[in-house]
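Subject: Predicted fold for C2H2-type domain-containing protein, 334 residues

User T.R. writes:
Posting the sequence so we have a shared reference for the thread.
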Amino acid sequence: MSRVNDEFNLLLDSLNSLSRDDFTDISARISGIKKKATAMRGFLNTYEIEGGRIDPNIFLERNKSKIVNLINRKEKPTKSNIVLTCEFYKRNPEGTVYSHGTFRSKIEIITDSTNISNIYDKWSEDILESFTNYQNAGSGWIFRKIISLEINIDTFAPMSGSSYLPLPKELIPKKAIINMKNKDNECFKWAVTRALYPSKRDLEKVSSKLKEDSKNINWNGLSFPVEIEDISTFEDNNPYGVNVFGYNGEVYPLRITNSENRIINLMIISEGGKNHYCWIKNMSRLVSRQVDNHQHYRFICDRCLNSFKSQESLDKHSEYCRNSDAIKMSLPKK
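User M.O. replies:
I've generated the structure tokens; pasting them so everyone works from the same file.
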């Protein structure tokens, strides 16, 4: 009897040591959701549901309750989104070519009062709209099957820019980013101003001339340091749109604007709990090696980071991409 009690107490100790996230992960596995060993860039946790030869609309609806329950069990607040990856094919004289298309929902901040079911419905609508638009855009790609549905979840902590941080060493030789050497918490202001008022020298210096130029821009309604979620206030007050990208070995989007005005591309780098906005002066230099192993100059779409060999090809793509959520197409790795 003593041995049984000892084993029972050990079991209780094991259960008591589990966190809320541990219970969530166990429940997810039971419902057919796998936690990926490597999370998507910008998130701590990525879960995956395997796809198959099934209509995307039916697939998303069939898995709604699983995903809503998964997110609902997580500690709040969280930031979350879903990503549907599909396989397409195209027939040409040389044979059949296969490609993967990735359709992302927008990232939503979820609190205890959020109606997660409504959020999921909006995610599904956006993804299906992007999927349909892509099918109808005359690209020639034909849907074959769903590869997977990923659910990205992370604890939400508002990200805002602050004082100067050095660039990651591997980005410096690219000479694609202007990193303002500010001593205040207004790196967003100085990065944006430098993008709009470039100079031939001392590009990274917060000079008296730069401060004067900044007065031509409307900063009303912003508190410094600026959080990513507040950039829409800047866009409402100015004829500019702002994209924000992160970096974790590769460049990835954190915020993609819907503005049709002049676009400013920023990168936010992080170190030791601090964040810092920089101006991406040349996107092609920054990501060409990431999208083209041959290191040829490429014309990069600021929304989806797809690359093109000519400005004409990029212009044709951009007209479609502006009216769709960012879609990243890639050939499957052999």
